[in-house]
Design goal:
- The protein is α/β, with parallel strands linked by helices.
- It has two domains: about 200 residues, 2-enoyl-CoA Hydratase, Chain A, domain 1 (Alpha-Beta Complex), CATH 3.90.226; about 50 residues.
- Helix content is about 50%, strand content about 15%.
- Strands 1-2-3-5-7-10 form a six-stranded mixed sheet, sandwiched between helices. Strands 4-6-8-9 form a four-stranded mixed sheet.
- α1 packs parallel to α3.
Length: about 260
């Protein structure tokens, strides 16, 4: 059996982080959580990358959450629990605060910490046979306030209360109705549809994508905490860029633009 890990691959404007522990439904170990910030930083530093995609190996699971086999050593005792939570929070914040857009490509189950990880992404797409669940109440463990907050922000207090307190499974169709995922496709057409959707984003202007992400993130904050100046600065950068000139030229010439992120 191969060592649990998160694989990194970059190409065609996309950096893909693949949670690779299919034998355990891609459950995340402490070491895998700890690796996420470095992998996100690698994608951020690569000028050719315009979109970061998080996915799971195989077709059974996006991520089943934390690897429970580690709880006896990694989540027992105050110091161990604190260290584990620090690693989880760092991984999630790396995705949430990435300057480039982040997309969760979900096929199969997204449970517990796996769903929380997906909620850190800007976009979530899923196959129609995917399933979502937060089983904390069935396991007797605490579910972090930040994770509860993220769920409420995405789907509202009522639906979030239902998911958390019942610990029930939500199917792909309901997940889309709730706004838990942005798009779903039938399992038989998911791979191509997801590839096309990802490619469409990755061919857009990189500076505009980052400016839009910044503005979208700021709208989620209370008015007095919003970095309006930072968002406006990124918008201004778009208008002073070579890509802006390229976009106009491509429109006039009726061709696809060739953006460079400059």
């Amino acid at each position: 059996m191969s060592e649990p890990r998160i694989d990194y691959q970059a190409g065609d404007g996309v950096a893909t982080l693949t949670i690779n522990q299919p034998a355990k439904m891609n459950a995340l170990t402490f070491e895998m959580w700890s690796a996420i910030p470095g992998l996100v930083a690698q994608a951020e530093e690569d000028h050719s990358v315009r979109l970061i995609v998080v996915t799971g190996a195989g077709d059974k699971a996006f991520c089943a959450g934390a690897d429970i086999s580690q709880f006896g050593t990694k989540r027992t005792g105050e110091a161990a629990v604190q260290a584990y939570e620090v690693a989880v929070l760092a991984g999630m914040e790396a995705l949430m605060h990435a300057k480039k857009p982040v997309l969760a490509r979900i096929r199969g189950i997204a449970f517990g910490g796996g769903l929380a990880l997906a909620l850190c992404c800007d976009l979530r797409i899923a196959s129609s046979d995917s399933r979502f669940r937060i089983p904390a109440a069935r396991l007797g463990l605490g579910y972090a306030f930040s994770n509860v907050e993220a769920l409420v922000h995405r789907i509202g207090l009522g639906p979030a209360s239902d998911m958390l307190l019942s610990a029930r499974i939500v199917d792909g169709a309901e997940a889309q109705r709730l706004g838990l995922v942005n798009k779903t496709w039938d399992a038989t057409s998911f791979d191509k549809a997801a590839d096309d959707y990802i490619a469409a984003i990755a061919t857009n202007a990189p500076l505009t994508l980052m400016a839009l992400k910044k503005s979208l993130a700021e709208t989620a904050k209370p008015h007095h905490e919003r970095d309006r100046a930072g968002a406006d600065a990124l918008v201004a950068l778009c208008f002073s860029s070579e890509d802006y000139q390229e976009g106009q030229a491509a429109f006039k010439e009726k061709r696809l633009p060739q953006f460079k992120g400059a």
